[in-house]
Specification:
single chain; 12 helices; 435 residues; alpha/beta; four-stranded parallel sheet; binds flavin-adenine dinucleotide; globular
């Protein structure tokens, strides 16, 4: 008899934890992901703001499982499930359809941005949900400075105005990191331009930044951002977005050529394509044991799943929730194979953190321990290093951080436009026969 087939959709925090928890078991695990790498999403904003290299925050999935013989990998996008045949339909990058049979399935496809149907937000906004998003934002930000250097008159029209929408941890981190990039580095790179004319506006529709944090942490974040010259606008919402301006619901028009969208989040659209029950934010409804109701042997974990918390609400979309639920789903599969009953999933909350910039962060830990400033920043740095995948990545991130801290310099400030390579190939390809 062949070993039971376990398919894991997504090589994020949840998918990796589930596969690792199945090490040594007599199961045949296939991880399927549209990318051939795992992305450490919490550090994406540092790639977007030239703090880190793209390769520092990503790691090839095959490399992670080199020493786990029961894990295989398929680079493909899952598009649908056939629950009767117990197969997944996937599409490779080359456009081929590959059908994946499974005995047990873990859906760990994560989340994506939600634009709340705001006109122009998806078209012109820059989200931060993938490595490609981070590189696109870095290219765009740096290209605005080059455009302003070439044509200073553009500054009056908002070429150096950057609107960040969403006052949660991602918005706060992006705004703080942009301010440091401009003040620490671009002032030296663009010596003949008045970089201080660059403007960062952080817009949040509720009355507070960092909603789930305590009042002192919220105040600390705001004062640190304002000390870095960021305009914090609370109780304000975006009405529409155009390439060179952002219109607020109040009617105010902000000339800005860049809008970073850190406001809304929803489950990956795969949840809707799988023919399963979905709930708030498009997340897959699951029982307390993470099983998908009516779909035998199928589990949903992490951001894509609506996991019930102890207080009756849903667990937040956070990396520890994804990892812990991934390990639990793996445990459920082991129990199902052994014929043992299932167990409910209990999330152990180890706290939340957000960083604002150099020696500025907030951390809310269990037992009411709240840190801010340098201690919170050091805790944030240490934890992120600890959870990064791969020693090489840890070392590289550590060296980048030490270098930035000591020299006030930043890492890669490269405008690498993928279209450029395609255009070059097109120009090189002869369109008329050689005479
Ligand atoms: C910018 C940013 C900063 C964050 N900062 C923090 C933080 O500081 N602390 C914290 O705890 N959390 C943070 N989070 C949240 C945290 O990263 C997520 O909760 C966590 O990544 C969820 O893990 P996951 O495994 O559910 O999904 P993900 O890690 O998102 O992984 C999903 C995987 O599924 C793959 N996938 C998606 N659709 C398909 C498909 N159809 N077919 C094949 N593969 C597919 C994707 O390529 C991806 O690899 C942050 C998130 C973002 C976006």
């Amino acid at each position: 008899m062949s070993a039971p087939k376990v398919v894991i959709v997504g090589a994020g925090f949840g998918g990796l934890a589930a596969a690792e928890a199945l090490a040594g078991e007599v199961v045949d695990v296939t991880i399927v992901d549209r990318n051939n790498f795992h992305t450490f999403l919490p550090l994406l904003y540092q790639v977007a703001t030239s703090g880190l290299n793209a390769a520092d925050v990503a790691y090839p999935v095959r490399g992670i499982f080199q020493k786990q013989p029961n894990v295989d990998f398929l680079q493909a996008t899952v598009t649908a499930a056939d629950w009767d045949a117990r197969t997944l339909r996937t599409e490779t990058a080359e456009g081929h359809t590959v059908t994946l049979p499974f005995d047990h399935l873990i859906v760990a496809a994560g989340a994506t941005a939600s634009y709340f149907d705001i006109p122009g937000a998806e078209e012109h906004g820059y989200p931060l949900y993938s490595l490609a998003d981070a590189i696109a934002l870095r290219n765009h930000v740096l290209a605005r400075f080059e455009a302003a250097a070439a044509e200073p008159a553009l500054i009056d029209g908002g070429v150096l105005s950057f609107v960040v929408v969403g006052g949660g941890p991602t918005g706060v981190e992006v705004a703080g990191a942009l301010a440091e990039l401009f003040q620490m580095v671009l002032t030296k790179d663009f010596r003949r331009m008045d970089v201080h004319r660059a403007r960062i506006v952080l817009i949040e529709m509720t009355p507070a930044l960092l909603g789930p944090f305590s009042l002192p942490s919220q105040r600390h974040a705001r004062s640190e951002l304002e000390a870095r010259g960021i305009e914090v606008r609370l109780d304000q919402a975006v009405a529409s977005v155009e390439p060179t301006q952002v219109v607020l619901k109040s009617g105010e028009v902000l000339p800005a050529h860049t809008l970073v969208w850190a406001a809304g989040v929803q489950a990956n659209p795969l949840a809707a394509a799988l023919d399963v029950e979905t709930t708030r934010g498009g997340r897959i409804a699951v029982g307390t044991d993470l099983r998908i109701p009516g779909r035998a042997g199928a589990y949903a974990i992490g951001d894509v799943a609506a996991i019930p918390g102890r207080d009756g609400g849903l667990l937040p979309m956070l990396a520890p929730v994804a990892s812990q639920s991934g390990r639990h789903a793996a445990g459920e599969i082991k129990r199902a194979i052994a014929g043992r009953p299932s167990k409910p999933f209990h999330y152990r909350d180890k706290g939340t953190m957000a960083t604002i910039g150099r020696r500025a962060a907030v951390a809310e830990l269990p037992f009411g321990i709240h840190l801010s400033g340098t201690p919170a920043w050091l805790a944030w740095l240490g934890l992120h290093l600890l959870f990064l995948v791969g020693f090489r990545n840890r070392l590289s991130v550590f060296l980048n951080w030490v270098w930035s801290y000591l020299t006030w310099d930043r890492g890669p400030r490269l405008i690498v436009d993928q279209r450029e390579a395609r255009d070059a190939r097109r120009l090189e390809a002869p369109t008329t026969p050689h005479r």
